[in-house]
Automatic annotation (TrEMBL):
Region (Disordered): 293-336
Top-rank taxon: Bacteria
Descriptive protein name: Permease of the drug/metabolite transporter (DMT) superfamily
TM region(s), chain numbering: 32-56, 68-86, 98-117, 124-145, 151-172, 184-202, 214-237, 249-266, 272-292
Provenance organism: Pseudonocardia ammonioxydans
Keyword set includes Transmembrane helix: yes
Amino acid sequence: MSGTRARVAVAAGVTVLAWASAFVAIRAVGPVFGAGGLALGRLLVGGAALTVAVLVRRTWIRPTAREWLLLTCCGLSWFTVYNVALNAAEEQLDAGTAAMLVNVGPILIALSAGVVLREGFPRPLLAGAAIGFAGAVVIGFATSGPGPAGAAGPAGALLCLLAAATWTIGVLTQKPVLRRIPALQVTQIACVIGAVGTLPWAGDLATALGTAPAPAVAGLVYLGLVPTALAFGTWAYALSRTDAGRLGVTTYLVPTLVVLMAWPVLGELPPPLALLGGALALSGVALSRYPARHPGRRVPRRPAAAAGVEDEPRDPGTRMPAEAAEPDHDRTGPQR
């Protein structure tokens, strides 16, 4: 188990670093390709790399009809809509602000799991959701003026929230498929489906590639290979071995890393009010994942000294009933 946890931690770390760099890369090369063209180019590169990896492994599990439906939903939501929405949002918002808004996703995942998976709505979740969405409103207000693309209004913030919602749909539809199908194959199928969903922007991509400078093309290839093929693959690997809520906690680091990366690379920082809203949003996300108290789990030990009597002698090999009834809280998910 310790080896598995270490591999999951490494996979989650790779995902966080790669996804953080994606916000900066999108901001840098997005104006060259446009929102749809960039999404198509990124998914074509990522889908090709993942397909080669699947062919090299020579392992293929035929999905059932239900699994095909879930994979299609995951591909169109998380790969198609998410990428187009995020690319369009970063035409109006700096990378750090976009990352802070998108990372209300773990709250949406937890709220959706309360309905879809019947996990309930503990008080920390509800309080965190309120604080997180308040932070999102503050960010939207801070960025509602004229943006770098010349657009006014909270369109960029709303597009980021759309990306967070489609991220939620992607995770909820991906998790059941990972119970039977390898993570690499799940990522490859979803990415190819996502690329098909962005084909309406094929003309934009072809036009942009004809005039794009070499650094922009390199950025497009990087987005396809690292934040898409590699990072979505490591995410799926980690998600197949832990629950979605715990894995979502790791994305708290993404906005901070994005701000630290964007400052020297792009020379931009979020507005001060947006930073305040981001702090509120991330605090809400952290609070939403705070473990709820479960009364009655601990069996209090009788203080013998306070009672003024000694415990009766027991056989050393006899196990206390309270110990036998104590549940193992370290295990999560189905035991195999």
